[in-house]
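Lab notebook, entry 225. We have the chain sequence and a SMILES string for pyridoxal-5'-phosphate, and the next step in the workflow is to get a structural model of the bound complex before anyone spends time on docking refinements. Request logged below.

Task: model protein plus pyridoxal-5'-phosphate, output structure tokens.
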Amino acid sequence: MYIAQNLNNFLQQLPTHVTLVAVSKTKSVADIKEAYDAGQRDFGENKVQEMTSKHEDLPSDIRWHMIGHLQSNKIKYMAAYVHLIHGVDSLELLIEINKHAIKHNRIIPCLLQVYIAQEETKFGLDFNEIETLLQSETFSNLQNIKVVGLMGMASFTDDESQIKSEFHSLKLFFQKLKISQPETTNLKLETLSMGMSGDYQLAIEEGSNLVRIGSAIFGSRNYIA
Ligand SMILES: *Cc1c(COP(=O)(O)O)cnc(C)c1O
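Result returned:
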């Protein structure tokens, strides 16, 4: 009951150009079904096995987003159905995703994860590494993946000005990249995935068009991630 209400409250204040991915990690199939029945179709998970078992138990028109850090040996379990992989942080991973996409005769959309936080713990590529990757011949030959944007996570801090400046730097880089990297068959920069329950307002102000929201919809999670 409260999930549908949270969802509707959240959607009411979300600008229409911003996509909501409801982050359902650790939450039950029943909880997800409640959000689904209230109209939500995009869901995010950070573990491939958990996502795959939920995929099997829930309606097939759900768009499943992999938002966690990816291990290449898990790609095969989701290659048939995953809607968007957010956390791609190496060319090697793209090569692996491409391989499995070929097996399923499909193109898998991906976001490159950009390192913007000041913490050492966050995964991702820096701006130079992203440019190098996108300009490489290896990348241009991957025809069963499509890089459709960037994803970033700000530092875990109360300092709003820091969060804002991290999101801002990613937005500027995204815009610059759109100009410097012409659209190709496997590159079209449209999606800027930034913002979680604690910082999505700042992220949207700074140009996010996809937010990944867990606790503000499903309530807090009882585990330490
Ligand atoms: C868990 C998670 C979220 C959602 O976090 P909330 O604070 O619960 O909104 C968003 N993005 C990633 C990558 C996550 O792992």
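Notes for the group: The chain has ten helices and eight strands. Worth checking against the assay data. The pocket of pyridoxal-5'-phosphate is lined by residues 23, 25, 46, 67-68, 196-198, 212-216 (CB under 6 Å).
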